[in-house]
Amino acid sequence: MDVQKDKIDEILLKWLMQTATEEELDILKKWGRLNEENLKLIENLGKTWKEDTPEPLFTHVESKANEIWAAAMQEQPKKLMSWRKVFRYAAAILIFSVSFFWVLNLADRGKTEKEDSTALASTFILRENLPGQKTKVLLPDGTVVFLNSSSSIKYQENFEGRERRVVLNGEAFFEVAKDANKPFIVECLGIETEALGTAFNVNAFDPHQIGISLIEGKVRINESETSSKLATLSPGNQLLINLATRKFFEQAFESEEVIGWTVGKLVFSHADFQAITSGLEKWFGVDITVKGNAPEDWQVSTVYQNQTLKNILTDLQYSKKFAYEINGTNVTITF
After folding, report:
1. For residue range 60-69, what is the model confidence (pLDDT) as tens digits?
2. ∠265-203-330 over CA atoms, to 5°?
């Protein structure tokens, strides 16, 4: 899209002052979609506009602010001067990774000019777990989310608009609050899982595959880009999708294997050595180093509930001969 660069700063200011016309808002939305830098710039401006902190968060931010503006707007340095105060805060927020993002398509649904401005200015909340950390999150609509380690969810502060959308990375189990007039959608790696009121698990730890498992209720699974329907699941079934080929198949599953983690159960089912070490790393937030050659005949099926890492490794030693050393978050397994 060819947007006159000398007009973008004017439109941005009018948007912040809530005086932008519908046509100008449309230009701004399209410009924001051109690349990630533009989107981040809009995000930072909207957030910092509300800031009342009199000083920047740290020193030497101003040069970074100019860099952000130059990358997004491709303007000469003289164009940056009038925005210097705002961009000091914008750069600080970007560097500190404040978890607020923008959805620029909300205003495409026949909203008024005022609603368009509100949609553009809506903030998003990011909840993120470190390795070894698991949390229970209550969403604004009453939905309960069990968020696994090394995972994150992003959602609109008040679920404004016609839907309740959550963006997931990693794994989470959702107990969805019923609202027939506002569908609940989980977006993950280009796949959307839609439910009105149900309980389901989404696992995208494997970079090549996403698994959606339904505990109760009903969900419809779609492609994000095309909105084409992939499947409608019944309780006790899961859909496994190959992210490279987009091929998928449906199968039954054991509930404990899929959602045991929500009640403190670390479940291994016919797990090889790689699956075990990867599972232990995520569960306990550790890094495992292997010395020697691990036997290839690992097919471990067991459940550990509320056990320490030391107890699990000791238990595994009975069937597989190895030595281990735990030094803080670093673990060494030697064969």
Report:
1. 334 444 444 4
2. 60
User: In this predicted model, which residue has the larger pLDDT, 185 or 16?
Assistant: 185
Q: What is the DSSP string of 215-251?
A: EES-EEEEETTT--EEEEE-TTEEEEEETTT--EEEE
72 C-beta neighbours (distance < 10 Å), count: 21
In the chain, pLDDT over 70 holds for what percent of residues?
Answer: 71
CA distance 102 to 335: 50
Q: In this structure, what token pair is assigned to residue 29?
A: 């939305």
The residue whose two tokens read 């209720």 is 217
The span from the CA of 237 to the CA of 216, in Å, is 10
Phi/psi of residue 136, nearest 5 degrees = -115, 125
Q: Are 152 and 126 in contact (CB under 8 A)?
A: yes
Span 120-156, pLDDT tens digits: 445 788 899 988 899 999 999 999 999 999 999 999 8
Query: In this structure, what token pair is assigned to residue 64?
Result: 């970074």
| Distance of alpha carbon 173 from the chain centroid | 14
Determine the Cα–Cα distance for residues 240 and 142; give it in Å rounded to an integer: 28
pLDDT confidence of residue 204: 93
Look at residues 117, 206, 219, 210 and name the one whose alpha carbon lies nearest to residue 175: 219
Tokens 């990375």 correspond to: 169
Integer Cα distance of 290 and 251 in angstroms: 34
Find the mean pLDDT for residues 201-214. 94
